[in-house]
Write a structure and sequence with these properties.
Elements lengths: L15 H14 L3 H12 L3 H28 L3 E5 L2 E6 L2 H12 L29
Antiparallel strand pairs: 1-2
Helix pairs in contact: 1-2
Length: 134
C-alpha cells in the first residue's frame, strides 16, 4: 500500500496556550507534534483515527484477558493502566491512577481494569435512573 501524500500546512492566529498544550501532550507521549495534531484532527472529523483507537482499546482488553492469570500474581486487587498492550502504571485507588495516567498520556483510550482472580468479580450493575412523575 502506498504511503499517503503529505503537504505542509501553516496555521495563523492559533492561540499560544493551545500550541503549548499540544507540544506538552506530544512530549508526554513521546510523539511528534505532527502525529498528535494529525490524530486529533482525524478523530475530530470522525475519520480512521476513531476506529484505530477503538481497535487499540479492544487489543488491550484482549491482551489483559489472555494474561489475567499471570497478572493476578503481581497486581491482585490493584488497577492497572494498559496502553498498547503494556502496563504503564498501577495503583490501589482508581481515581489517583486515572489522574496520573491521563496527565502523562493525555486524553485517549486507556484500559484500566481491576485485577482479580475471578472475572465475575468485574461485573458492575448500574441501575438506570427513574423518571419522576410530575
Amino acid at each position: 500500500m502506498a504511503a499517503p501524500s503529505r503537504k505542509v500546512l501553516f496555521l495563523r492566529d492559533v492561540p499560544t496556550e493551545l500550541i503549548r498544550e499540544v507540544k506538552a501532550v506530544a512530549a508526554r507521549r513521546g510523539q511528534t507534534l505532527t502525529t498528535v495534531v494529525t490524530e486529533a484532527l482525524t478523530r475530530s472529523l470522525g475519520g480512521d483515527g476513531a476506529s484505530t483507537a477503538s481497535d487499540s482499546l479492544q487489543g488491550d482488553m484482549d491482551w489483559y484477558r489472555k494474561r489475567r492469570a499471570s497478572l493476578v500474581k503481581r497486581y491482585e486487587g490493584a488497577y492497572v493502566a494498559i496502553i498498547d498492550q503494556k502496563i504503564v502504571d498501577h495503583g490501589r485507588a482508581f481515581d489517583q491512577l486515572a489522574v496520573r495516567v491521563f496527565a502523562r498520556y493525555g486524553n485517549r483510550n486507556i484500559y484500566m481494569p481491576r485485577v482479580t482472580a475471578h472475572p465475575e468479580d468485574l461485573t458492575v450493575v448500574v441501575r438506570s435512573p427513574r423518571r419522576s412523575r410530575s
